[in-house]
Amino acid sequence: MRVTHLAVAAFLALPLAVTTASAGPGPAPLPFSISSVLPAPAEAIPGSESFGLTRDTVITAGGPAAPIAEQLAAAWRPATGFALPVAADPQNSAIRIGLDARMSGEAYRLGVDRDQVELTAGSLKGLFNGVQTLRQLLPPEIESATIQKGPWTIPGGVINDKPRFAYRGAMLDLARHFHTPDEVKRYIDQISRFKINFLHLHLSDDQGWRIQIDSWPRLTTVGGAKGTGVRGLGGGFLTKNDYRDLVDYAAQRYVTIVPEIDMPGHVNAAQVAYPELTCDGVAPRPRIDIRVGYSSLCAGKEITYRFAEDVIRELAAMTPGPFLHIGGDEAHSTPHADYLSFQQRVLPLVGKYRKTAIGWQEIAAVRTDAIVQYWNHQAPLETTQRVIMSPADRAYLDMQYDLLTPGGLHWAGTTEVRDSYSWDPGTLLSGVPEELVFGVEAPLWSETLTDLAEIEFLAFPRLVAIADIGWSRKSDWDSFKMRLGAYGPRWTRQGVHFYSSPQIPWS
Ligand code: ACM
Q1: Are residues 248 and 348 in the same domain?
Q2: Radius of gyration (C-alpha) of the chain in whole angstroms
Q3: Do 341 and 379 belong together in one domain?
Q4: Which residue, 429, 446, 316, is CA-closest to 372?
Q5: Cis (ω within 30 of 0) for the bond into 155?
Q6: Are 181 and 102 within one domain?
Q7: Residue 33: its pLDDT value, please?
Q8: Would residue 497 count as lying in a domain?
Q9: What is the pLDDT of residues 29-56, one digit of tens each?
Q10: What CA–CA distance (Å, rounded) separates 325 from 330?
């Protein structure tokens, strides 16, 4: 049955009560403190004072920090109606944003008292992280697109924050159903609020090919045509300009795009477009079902490697980020010896075009320096390579919450919010010590997903659970569920179609 937007909407009992700081004599009690943030800061020390944002507040930021300050001001202007000018002069400011050479990486420090808010970091990325925290410290009405009453009070204290893992990813499958650049941008807007710093785009699969490759044009004219996708719905692809625009949009939110072309399996769409990529040269039929494991590139043909190199070269040229994902999963119809010889030739091509390869966990069979992405929770993994953790029974956002919630699949079981939160990437696998864990990623496969409301319903709130685990060393369900519950009214204000899990005390 097609899962419709209406079906999703019918299941959403969106919490409507919005907590406000009430006006009245004396300072209003704040509904949250400096430690209510998602993901949990490494250190948050509440203070006794709070800062009131007014129509006279000025934000100061020198030189390179100015665009970050401008992002903050732009986020706060619609609901406050305040001008919030960004100035370079640090004298008369109440909110100061600046770089501090003694700090490094993604870390930031935020101090709030009665007189000022001071945000410092060693990099613009760190400042961006601090801004995401700061945005959660004003009440949920700040998310409104129209002027709200306020008051706009930021709880006081000090946050010293930095991430546990360098890689905190989300993945979106554009192959099973194409999602438009605008939908991908809305997803980037949301994930970046939780300090997710990589977006992996699954750009090819049996049902469709979604990225323009000039040297093999039929990949998109045929493989991305109307009707390519599960159930023959949708179709479409990213032109190189679309892709570069997405890369830029993501970069402004400190999100790096990781493109994936899945090989040697999951290639039916490419073989429909170019039958010479099969061993027998016969074109397969287009596929609109969700079976896996039946297609394979032909390891014994030279054209296979010309194809792989052309795709990798063009993809690397349009990708400023350091990583290129080459899939490698579920190649059930590739003989094992062929799989090994294919990967031994193709993995080095990624390095030739100056990218680091990532592959699904099956590539751990090949000894390289590629990063391994763990996904199959039923298959043990032992490796000396770096690992991104995406266990399907915890981190796959397309698993149903329970058997009655719409959208998604349940081949790895059902995954309520608590299941997605309650695991430790550093100790999950006895064969992967914490030093090798590069980070976490929450993949969202699109077999059942045609529009943004359906994407949002599966991603939120579980994406936040993975973001919290990836950022924070603390593991405390009671704290997480309270922080998440307090976040709900923000999504409501933004029109995000989140799942109001019965496990969460929504405000
Ligand atoms: C996968 O879920 N086949 C990576």
Answers
A1: yes
A2: 23
A3: yes
A4: 429
A5: no
A6: no
A7: 82
A8: no
A9: 556 688 899 999 999 999 999 999 999 9
A10: 15
Question: How much distance in Å is there from the Cα of 169 to the middle of ligand 1?
Answer: 15
Ligand 1 close to Cβ of residue 323 (< 6 A): no
Residues 119 and 177 reside in one and the same domain? no
From 176, 334, 375, 411, give the residue whose CB has the most ligand 1 atoms within 8 Å, as the site to mutate: 375
Q: Which helix (H) or strand (E) holds 110?
A: strand 108-112
352 and 326 in a common domain: yes
Instruction: Specify whether 330 is catalytic.
Output: yes
Ligand 1 in reach of 206 Cβ (< 6 A): no
User: Can you give the CATH number for the domain in which 361 is found?
Assistant: 3.20.20.80
DSSP-assigned beta bridge partners for residue 118: 96, 111
Same domain, 284 and 424: yes
Residue 367 has a pLDDT of 86
Choose among 439, 447, 362: nearest CA to 397.
Answer: 447
246 and 194 part of one domain: yes
Collapse the DSSP code of 361 into the 3-class scheme (helix H, G, I; strand E, B; otherwise coil) and give the result: helix
**Which one is catalytic: 141, 260, 314, 330?**
330
Does the C-beta of 498 come closer than 6 Å to ligand 1? no
Report CA(6)–ligand 1 centroid distance (Å).
29
Pocket of ligand 1 contains residue 339 by CB under 6 Å: no
- Give yes or no for a contact between 163 and 198, defined as CB atoms under 8 angstroms apart: no
Whether ligand 1 lies within 6 angstroms of the CB of 205 is answered as no
- Determine the pLDDT at residue 97: 97
- Residue 365's domain comprises 167-474
Look-up of token digits 């399907």: 392
pLDDT < 50 stretches in the chain? 1-27
Query: Is residue 7 domain-resident?
Result: no
Report the CATH number that the domain containing residue 89 is assigned in CATH.
3.30.379.10
Pocket test for ligand 1, best of 200, 376, 393, 397 (most atoms within 8 A of CB): 376
Whether 396 lines ligand 1, by a CB cut-off of 6 Å, is no
Mutate to test the pocket of ligand 1, among 205, 330, 394 (most ligand atoms within 8 A of CB): 330
- Indicate if 239 and 287 belong to the same structural domain: yes
Tell me, yes or no, whether 443 lies in a domain.
yes
**Alpha carbon of 428 to ligand 1 centroid (Å):** 18
